[in-house]
Structure of Shikimate dehydrogenase (NADP(+)):
Amino acid sequence: MPEITPDTIVCALFGHPVGHSMSPAIHNAAFDALGLPYVYVAHDVTPGQVGEALRGVRAMGYRGLSVTIPHKVEAMENVDVVDPTAQGIGCINTVVNNDGVLTGFNSDGRGALNALIDADADPQDKNVLILSSGGAARAIAVTLVRENPPQRIAIAGKTDSRVQSLVADVQSQGGTPIVGCGLNAEALKPEVDAADIIIHCSPVGMHPNEDATLIPAAWLRRDLAVFDAVYNPRRTKLLADTMAAGGRTIEGLEMFLGQAYVQFELWTGKPAPRDVMRRVVESRL
């Protein structure tokens, strides 16, 4: 890490708690690799105090923030400008300070989109099936519709009212047709058959329930690309079954890294040193 001086540019994490976060190690290694006079620190901010903390960011001239749970909505309500995609998602996870004007972004969906494009699975003009109607699904669906519109998106979830609410919200962001369905075999199998890309955003298959999956192996095929947002384990049962069927797979780790790359580039204006950031994450998994 470079010497910290009065001219050091500060970026930070706001969350509660923050002790488990890999973000300081990831971003400080990246700053160091490029010889940038930046430092990244973690702040445990009490819920309800995010507005006050952001006033401190303006006063002390912090360059940028990562924002994690439970502060993503409260932070959006207290910045000066919200990026249109983040506005559509309904929360932010990144802040950039330009001369005291705080702009909020959401890099989660862009991280997933970049991971798909890097894996030669660009969702533009494709049929996409998203499994889950939670926060990650919302971030990805809104980002796709606004920035790389698929031909059609199907959103599958276990609670119909929640699915239909998300369908309506995503539909309002662009012209891509959005439909909803349940997770039962009768509803889900036709959507799997129609999909070019499947994006799994639920916790199913996460450690310690590593044998679980929402998609039977027999439904998978060679021409599918499957992204699983779960990254513990890195190769979930869904991804292993997809590989066995000859399909293309994208690990959840790529979304986690992708959102960090986006944050780094928003703060510094320089390409993220991806290999350095990847090594930090992989060494801690």
The chain has a mean pLDDT of 96. The radius of gyration is 19 Å. The first strand starts at residue 9 and ends at 15. The chain has two domains: 9-105+256-284, 109-250.
